[in-house]
Specification:
Chain lengths: 140, 407, 144
C-alpha cells in the first residue's frame, strides 16, 4: 500500500442525523492539510496515509457507529474515474447498495456495543418428501 | 462533433482492453460513454428484459441497454462487447444487440474480445459506426452521377470500377501486391475499358485495407471503411436499395456479416482470426488439389460434402484431412464440396450467430463467384443467397457511388 | 492480521475489519498499486496484458480473460491473507465483483488456502444485522 497517498471515502449511515456538510467540516478541522471533498454520501479525504488514518480514528471517536469508511484506489478527481467524463462507473451501483445496508450495520454495532452476542440462526431444512406429500394430501 | 458511442460491456477493464477500445474510438473522432443507471434501475430493467444472468455486471449491461431503448440517455451508436468464451455473456451480448435494434435506431456492433485485443482490430468497426452517424445523408444516396472511380484495396485482391451516370463502364481486378502499383494497374485497365482519360474522372473513392495509402496517392474525395462502402455497393448491385437485407462477404482474410435497412448498415460483425473461415481456406484447398480456385466452385457443385470426412475446420489440419480422403480414393468433387461446406459452416457458427439474419441474403465479394460456396451457404441457411452481377466489385462500386455524392 | 474480504471491494467488510483491529486486503489496494504506477499507461485501471497472463496461475487459458484479470488482482491477496471473511448472498456486487464466475473461484481459492474463514450472510433485517456484526466481531477478535 502506498505510504504517500491515501484516498478514503467516509459514508454516513442513512440512520444518522449527521450531514455531509457537517462531516466535511469536521474532517477538515481534524487535518487542514488533507484534501476534503464533500459528496452526496459523506466525504472524500485525501492526504498522506498517516494523516488520513488519524482523521479516520477521530471520526470514529466522534461518531463510532454511523460513519463508515474504506480506501479508494483512485486519487480524488482522477480523470480515469471521473463521472462527468464517462458517466457512472460500475462500482457506483455497489456503493449505492451498500449505503442502504449501513443503517442495519449501524444498528448491529449499537446493539453489539450494548452486549449483544452472536446467536447461531436455526438451520433451514427442506422437509422430507413424505411429509410434503402428507401436507399435499391433507390440503386436497 | 464528437460521436458518442455507448459501451455495454463486461470484463474489458480486467482484460486490459478498455484502453484499446477507447483509443480506437478516439482515433475516429468518437468517445466512449456509459449510460447512467442507478442501482435501483437495475432489477427493474433485468425483469423487463427477461433474461436474468448470474453476473451483476451483465445485469448492469442490460440496465444500460434499457436506458438507451427508453431514450433516457443520449448516444449516437452502441458498442456491445464481452469476454470471449463466456457463455453467459454471449447470451446477453447477442440478445442485447437484437434488443437495441428492435427498440432504437442506433447502429450497433458486437465484439467478443480476448486480452490480446488491440485498437487496430477495432478501428474499422468504430470507423463504420462513426460513418453511419455522420454520413447518413451520403449513405442514403442511391444513384451514381458524373464520372467517378472506386478503388477497393483488399487483402487478397485489388479492384477498380469506373462508373458514369449510374452504370459500370470499366472494371478490373488483380491479386494484391504492392498497394499503389496494384491499384494503378487495375485503374489503368478499367479506364481503358471505359474509354475514359484519368483527367475526366471527377471523384475517386477508396476502401479496403489500403484505403488510406490509395486515398493519399490518388487524392481521393472519399476514403471510407469497407463495411459501409461494401453494403452500399452490394445493395446497388443487387438492386435492393430499399428495405432490409443481410450482406454476407466472405473475404480473403476476414468476413463481414452486415444487416442493412435501406442500404445503411445497422448491425455488423467482422471476423478475422481464423483462416479456416475465410476465402484463404478455399485458395489453400485448390492449391493442394492442384486446380485454380476459380474451378473449385463448379467442381464442388458436382460433389457431396458428406462423402469427404473432415475432422477439423483448421486451414492446416482440415485441408490435411481432405487430402487424406483423396488418398482413400474419394472424388475430387466431394473434397471440393467438403471444403466449401466447411467454410460456410464456420461462417455460420462464427459470424451469423451474432446478427439477426434478415432476408434476402446478398452474398458478395470474390468468394461469391465460387458457386459451391454459395450453394453451401444456401444449404446451411435454408435459403439461396442472391449473388448480384459483378459481386466481387462491391467495394469499388460503393466507392464510385458514394464519392459521386461529394461532387 | 491480514484479512481478505469478499466481496473484495465491500465498504462494510473493509470498515468492520479495520474497526476490529486488522488489516483488510481489498481490491482497492490492489488497484491503487496499479493506478499510482505511472510507468504503465493502460487507463482506467492499469490492469495490463501481463496481469491477465499472470492470472493463468489461477485459471486455465480456456477461462475468459476478464476472469483471469480479476484473479490476477485477488489471487496474490488471497495468497498473502491470514484469514478471510466471505459475505454470501450479497444483492450488491458490481464493479470488480461483477463477474459471478470469478467470485465463485475466489471462494474456492480461500477454501484451498485453508486459512480461517468466516462465512456470513447478508443481513435482511435488523435482527440479522445484529447477528452479522456480532459474528464478525467475535471472529475478528478471535484471530491471533
Amino acid at each position: 500500500m502506498s505510504e504517500t497517498r491515501e484516498t478514503r471515502l467516509f459514508m454516513i449511515s442513512p440512520r444518522s442525523t449527521l450531514t455531509p456538510d457537517q462531516l466535511a467540516r469536521m474532517v477538515h478541522a481534524y487535518g487542514a492539510e488533507a484534501l476534503v471533498k464533500e459528496t452526496c454520501y459523506g466525504c472524500l479525504v485525501e492526504g498522506p496515509r498517516e494523516l488520513v488514518l488519524s482523521i479516520r480514528d477521530r471520526v470514529r471517536e466522534g461518531y463510532p457507529n454511523e460513519v463508515f469508511t474504506k480506501i479508494r484506489a483512485y486519487p480524488s478527481s482522477d480523470p480515469r474515474r471521473c463521472r462527468a467524463m464517462h458517466g457512472t462507473r460500475p462500482g457506483y451501483a455497489q456503493l449505492e447498495m451498500e449505503w442502504e445496508l449501513l443503517a442495519r450495520v449501524q444498528h448491529g454495532l449499537d446493539e453489539v456495543a450494548k452486549g449483544a452476542r452472536y446467536v447461531p440462526p436455526e438451520e433451514k431444512k427442506r422437509i422430507p418428501v413424505n411429509d410434503f406429500k402428507r401436507i399435499c394430501e391433507v390440503r386436497r | 462533433m464528437t460521436i458518442k458511442i455507448a459501451q455495454l460491456s463486461c470484463g474489458t477493464e480486467y482484460s486490459s482492453v478498455q484502453y484499446e477500445i477507447e483509443k480506437a474510438a478516439r482515433s475516429v473522432g468518437a468517445k466512449i460513454v456509459y449510460p447512467d443507471v442507478s442501482a435501483s434501475d437495475i432489477d427493474e430493467a433485468v425483469k423487463r428484459f427477461g433474461f436474468v444472468p448470474r453476473s451483476p455486471q451483465l445485469k448492469l449491461m442490460i440496465a444500460r441497454a434499457v436506458r438507451l431503448a427508453d431514450g433516457k440517455y443520449d448516444a449516437d451508436a452502441v458498442f456491445i462487447t464481452t469476454c470471449f468464451r463466456c457463455s453467459d455473456a454471449a447470451f446477453v451480448r447477442n440478445e442485447l444487440s437484437r434488443f437495441i435494434q428492435e427498440n432504437t435506431r442506433l447502429p450497433v456492433v458486437t465484439y467478443s474480445f480476448t486480452e490480446r485485443l488491440k485498437a487496430s482490430q477495432l478501428l474499422t468497426r468504430m470507423e463504420a459506426l462513426v460513418t453511419i452517424v455522420t454520413r447518413k445523408e451520403l449513405l442514403s444516396r442511391e444513384r451514381q452521377t458524373g464520372i467517378t472511380v472506386g478503388l477497393d484495396s483488399g487483402s487478397s485482391t485489388t479492384k477498380a470500377v469506373v462508373m458514369e451516370n449510374n452504370k459500370i463502364i470499366g472494371k478490373d481486378w488483380t491479386p494484391s501486391g504492392d498497394v499503389v502499383a496494384s491499384a494503378e494497374a487495375v485503374l489503368g485497365n478499367a479506364l481503358k475499358m471505359a474509354g475514359i482519360e484519368m483527367s475526366q474522372v471527377e471523384a475517386i473513392g477508396t476502401t479496403g485495407y489500403g484505403r488510406f495509402t490509395l486515398g493519399d496517392h490518388f487524392g481521393a474525395k472519399l476514403v471510407q471503411e469497407e463495411l459501409t462502402v461494401n453494403s452500399k455497393g452490394a445493395v446497388w448491385l443487387a438492386d435492393r436499395q430499399r428495405g432490409e437485407a443481410t450482406i454476407l462477404d466472405i473475404g480473403g482474410m476476414d468476413n463481414k456479416a452486415i444487416t442493412v435497412r435501406d442500404g445503411v448498415p445497422d448491425n455488423f460483425t467482422m471476423g478475422g482470426i481464423c483462416a479456416g473461415a475465410s476465402g484463404r481456406f478455399l485458395e489453400m484447398t485448390s492449391k493442394r488439389l492442384k486446380i485454380e480456385v476459380t474451378q473449385l466452385g463448379a467442381l464442388a457443385d458436382k460433389g457431396n460434402w458428406r462423402n469427404a470426412k473432415m475432422n477439423s475446420y483448421c486451414s492446416v489440419f482440415g485441408i490435411q484431412d481432405l487430402v487424406t480422403t483423396l488418398g482413400e480414393g474419394k472424388r475430387f468433387e466431394d473434397v471440393a464440396a467438403a471444403a466449401c461446406h466447411s467454410v460456410a459452416e464456420q461462417v455460420y457458427e462464427q459470424q451469423l450467430q451474432e446478427i439477426d439474419v434478415r432476408h434476402p441474403i446478398i452474398q458478395v465479394g470474390g468468394t461469391s463467384l465460387i458457386s459451391g460456396l454459395v450453394t453451401a451457404v444456401g444449404e446451411i441457411l435454408g435459403e439461396a443467397p442472391i449473388v448480384p452481377p459483378d459481386s466481387q466489385y462491391i467495394g469499388a462500386v460503393g466507392g464510385a457511388l458514394l464519392s459521386s455524392g461529394l461532387l | 492480521m491480514k484479512v481478505f474480504i469478499d466481496p473484495p471491494n465491500s465498504l462494510v467488510l473493509f470498515d468492520l475489519v479495520e474497526r476490529f483491529g486488522h488489516e483488510p486486503l481489498s481490491t482497492m489496494a490492489a488497484i491503487q498499486e496499479r493506478v499510482d504506477n505511472i510507468e504503465v499507461d493502460m487507463p482506467p485501471m492499469n490492469v495490463t496484458l501481463d496481469d491477465v497472463v499472470k492470472g493463468l496461475k489461477y485459471a486455465g487459458v480456456e477461462v475468459p480473460s476478464g476472469v483471469r484479470g480479476r484473479l490476477a488482482l485477488w489471487g496474490p491477496l488471497i495468497d498473502e491473507a491470514d484469514a478471510a471473511i466471505i459475505m454470501d448472498d450479497c444483492p450488491y456486487s458490481f464493479g470488480c465483483v461483477g463477474c459471478e464466475r470469478s467470485n465463485l473461484m475466489v471462494k474456492y481459492l480461500i477454501k484451498r488456502r485453508g486459512i480461517p474463514a468466516l462465512r456470513v450472510t447478508y443481513p435482511e433485517n435488523d435482527e440479522q444485522a445484529v447477528n452479522f456484526v456480532a459474528q464478525t466481531k467475535e471472529f475478528l477478535e478471535g484471530l491471533q
